[in-house]
Amino acid sequence: xxxxNILTVSLVMLVAFATIYLVIYxxxxxxxxxxxxxxxxxxxxxxxxPVGGTNPYIELPSDNERFSVxxxxxxxxxxxxxxxxxxxxxxxxxxxxxxxxYNKIGTAQSGEITLEGRKWLFEVVETPQGIISPPYLxxxxxxxxxxxxxITNSVKILNTLLITLVSVGIIVLLALLWFSYRFAIRAxxxxxGNYNRQKQFIADASHELRTPLAVISTNIDAITASGEETVxxxxxxxxxxxxxxxxMGKLVDDLLYLAKSENIRRGGNLPFNFSIVCEKVCASMxxxxxxxxxxxxxxxxEEIMIEADSEKIASVLYILLDNAGKYTPRGGEIxxxxxxxxxxxxxxxxxxxxxxxxxxxxxIFDRFYRPDSxxxxxxxxxxxxxxIAKTIVDNSGGKISTESANGVTAFTVIFRLFKN
Length: 420
Known about the structure:
alpha+beta; Heat Shock Protein 90; 2 domains; five-stranded antiparallel beta sheet; five-stranded mixed beta sheet; about 45% helix; about 20% strand; elongated
């Protein structure tokens, strides 16, 4: 993609810069031709003696016979029967230079030559009829003129423009290449991360499904091996199968929810009393935690209103309390607080325990991720709860985060307050 982008931009820049150069080149060329035509349309008598002669220079009779400054630096060669005989020039050049100029043009009627390190545009024109010749020009001679115009500055302008366009083009392409490379790295990184997570997701899902399938297969084999036994006598095996089927059903439901939630757009949320929802969830979970030897402490502010799906937000709190209960040791305490801060509703679930390692914190909301690398089933579940909670919170326009230090782990959920 980088190569394609660079080639595309290069082609666009080439066309754009070439167009700019050709337009300016055409304008300068037309301007030079117009200046040359203007000079050619004027008649200037020689102001030098015959080439190679010894007569002193002849002073022009009037200013009208001189080249105007607006036409630039010019000179005229007077040719008779293919022989250079006279010159009109204000330049301090030797006669041999004019002879060299005449020799360079050959039989061409117009064009460009390089003379004395400068560029000259020339055109061959006939001497207008009815012109009174000076004393040293015979009326019998049929003179033609070769008019020269200095275009060195124009060539320099075009060369400077070309160098500038090429330099700018190279600098822009190098800058674009650098930015494209940096952008490509940043753009590919999340794609690579998503791809790796997808691979890990498939591997983890396969792992989670393999365990209940193996249990079911083993129990079916046990039932099959005891074919003479009655159904009631093998009830234990059937109970194991049902338990694993429920486990698989829960896993499939969680996976379906996560798959659907990726395409859910925010909308359809209604305002509700977040305080009441929190109190109900905490009340229902308090008995469960008490039975497992853990206590709960709550500090819930009243009349905190947010806009979301109340049932899904309740599910988030159930997930956080269930997660806290799994990782809080017997005799430990779980604290739930709900309050306001800077026009935000802030829910915080804190529990004591071993805590979460710093390297595990960035991955805690990943699917199937559990801090214990052995992936034991001591705490139950599949490592999808926190991922589901984050999905619900994100889809509701909130934010969820976690922190763990000194044996205390806290999950924080933030929503915008609803105002009438």
